[in-house]
């Protein structure tokens, strides 16, 4: 059984589509997707602003039945808020909201799972991070809140992977970089991309699902790109 938190998003939908024929759960935030081709997806509401969102999810489904759980929510911009080009555009509220959605949500999810999963769980837990959250790869700067919240997320993935080596030794925790994918999140930033660099949600869904399929607990704590290469933190 598979769950994508943020299943209503571009990358979430791509992943759920790649798992056609399997038992699939997805969460939505604003509108429940209505799609005849994927009518068998079980949709659950989820709002990361609610302090007990993860607990609510664990009431709606048995997390011990899951073989794969992907956290595919994320925030880069809103109607009235673009990613910062300069530190002069820094706003505390936007930074804290980015931290909540992009970083804290993963910690809250891992906290809930550690409380519920049986010790022998072989769960594969993946979170969609982003290469721009890599500190050592950062050569351009900018996008302060997004980059910082993804870097915080990457640290939390490392920490949870280390903790679960003892608590849930058969489980796997990884961060995935999906590559630039045609979604609401990337839409304002697609102009000028070299040909072939923008992937469809179906391409990304296939790429990430095959990485997840081949994942073993020996890989826990890795930061893996859509093409299978390892990324530096
Ligand atoms: N697209 C890219 O090129 C790209 C590149 C690198 C990394 N990423 C990362 O990939 C992940 C998915 O991005 P995407 O491109 O699929 O974006 P997207 O299409 O905008 O999807 C975002 C998802 O997050 C959900 N969400 C947002 N705020 C939420 C909240 N407060 N509570 C619960 N759910 C919430 C959305 O729900 P609704 O649909 O209901 O609003 C949607 O399911 C993000 O972490 C992003 O940073 C994307």
Describe the model.
The chain is α/β, with parallel strands linked by helices and 233 residues long. The chain has a single domain (2-225), classed as NAD(P)-binding Rossmann-like Domain (Rossmann fold, 3-Layer(aba) Sandwich), CATH 3.40.50. It has helices at 10-18, 53-60, 92-116, 144-167, 201-213; strands spanning 2-5, 24-28, 42-45, 68-71, 124-128, 172-177, 223-225. The chain has a 7-stranded parallel sheet with strand order 3-2-1-4-5-6-7, sandwiched between helices. α3 packs parallel to α4. It is globular, with a radius of gyration of 17 Å. The relative contact order is 0.16. The chain binds NADP nicotinamide-adenine-dinucleotide phosphate. NADP nicotinamide-adenine-dinucleotide phosphate binds next to α1.
The end-to-end distance, rounded to whole angstroms, is 30 Å
Supply the number of helical segments: 5
CATH T-level topology: Rossmann fold
CATH hierarchy class name: Alpha Beta
The biggest beta sheet is recorded as: 7 strands, parallel
User: Low-confidence stretches at least 5 residues in length (pLDDT < 50)?
Assistant: none
Written as H for each helix and E for each strand, in order along the chain, the element string is EHEEHEHEHEHE
Beta content comes to 5-15%
Number of domains: 1
Kindly provide the radius of gyration, computed on alpha-carbon positions and rounded to a whole number of angstroms: 17 Å
CATH architecture group name: 3-Layer(aba) Sandwich
Helical fraction equals 25-40%
List how many beta strands DSSP finds.
Answer: 7
Helix-strand category: alpha/beta
Question: On the 0-100 scale, what is the average pLDDT?
Answer: 97
Which cofactors or ions or other ligands sit in this model?
A: NADP nicotinamide-adenine-dinucleotide phosphate
- Overall, the morphology is globular
- Strand order in the sheet with the most strands: 3-2-1-4-5-6-7
| CATH 4th-level superfamily | NAD(P)-binding Rossmann-like Domain
